Amino acid sequence: MIAKKAAKREQTDVVGCPQCDWVSQRTELSKREHAECPRCGYFLEGAATRHHTLVAIAAAALVLLLASLQVNFISYSVTGSEQSMTLMDAAWQLSFFHEKVLAVLVLLTVILIPVLYLVSLIWVYSQIHNSGSNRLNRYFLRLMEHLKPWLMTDVFLLGTLVSLVKISGLAEVRLLEGFWGFSVFVVLLLYVYERAKRTPIWDYYMATSRPNIHVQAGMTANEQDLQTCPLCHALNAKDADKCYQCTEPQKTAWWRKPGTTLALIFAGAIMLIPAHWLPVMETVRFGNEQPATIIGGVTELWQAGDRPVAVIIFVASLVIPVAKVLTLAVLLLLAQRQTPAIVQNRLLLFKVTDWIGRWSMIDIFVVAILVALVRGGTVMSVYPGSAAVSFAAAVVLTMLAAMSFDTRLFWREAHK
């Protein structure tokens, strides 16, 4: 049984699952309860939380991020020379070395997108009782949903720690105010993200008029000539151009077609070839250039005794990208060979593959940190390698492939 705590506004009594297309009934939720799809276990909604608390924590996180940009992040000293970097330098120095694509990617995923997400959340949750701003609020709610997959501050923080391990044996490293402020910001952002995901926010911005359609629980939306909105889970007519509740365009069948997913998988696989063949960064020590591939960096860390870090880089940069390409390709090609007994296993495999894909960005963030921090001329400097853009492209393409993967095919093919 699907449930939800009553809001002040009128509610619909059914909700669709964007993962398996099942339509379920809704009832009230008590505190700390949440609702899952009875067919596939997809998290649909949770009980209401205190909106003012969420806004306050989001505002504190935003202030911490902006403050972290104003002070030094990390410093290191070697042979009497000391260098320091700010958080913004992680993107700025990449741009200085003509790696503008990487610079924009780091700037977006670490700074701009988190800022946009928090600003949108603060606006939406602070305007809940203002009925005159529904259209603008729906826009910000849609923006929040689209930004979620690209919040990578936690990946960047882990990449920072890996960077420190890589250079700790060559120089004295100090963590400064910017690092600690950013670390607290990441914790607050993750908390806000999880709490917002569990709050039935759409109840407060429900459309006053709904389409005149008959919906029955216990069936799929497709069987009733309906479609489930992937953002707000509202049920719309099959031929609807946009969702009546959140105004998200619904004519996106091309995006979730197997052909689109397969093309993105293939493109990502092609990008992995130069990403692992060419050097991802180059280190200059006393005038000697030392190019390093991804596997070369893993080997160096292992031989230096930093085996836990070597394992992290090996899994994130080698195992995960290759495994994600192979897994998505196999799941897509075998979609027409489903049986009810194996659908749940394949869905679990897809969920794990989708979740771990973003962690492959660790290597890109390691390069960004080292390029920004280690700038000692011929004494010791780090420069981005030609493989960095290819690897970043492979990560982005495989993430897009997972987003375009239509998991509803599992059940449709299994019940043919």
From TrEMBL:
| UniProt superkingdom | Bacteria
Can you tell me where the transmembrane regions are? 54-78, 101-126, 147-167, 173-193, 259-278, 309-334, 355-374, 386-405
Please provide the record's keywords in A-Z order.
Cell inner membrane, Cell membrane, Membrane, Transmembrane, Transmembrane helix
List the GO terms this entry assigns under cellular component, sorted alphabetically: plasma membrane
Major subcellular location class = membrane
Its membrane topology is listed as:
Multi-pass membrane protein
- Cytoplasm as a keyword of this entry, yes or no, is no
- Subcellular locations according to the entry: Cell inner membrane
Q: Which family does it belong to?
A: Belongs to the PqiA family.
Query: What is the recorded name of this protein?
Result: PqiA/YebS family transporter subunit
**Species this protein is from:** Idiomarina abyssalis
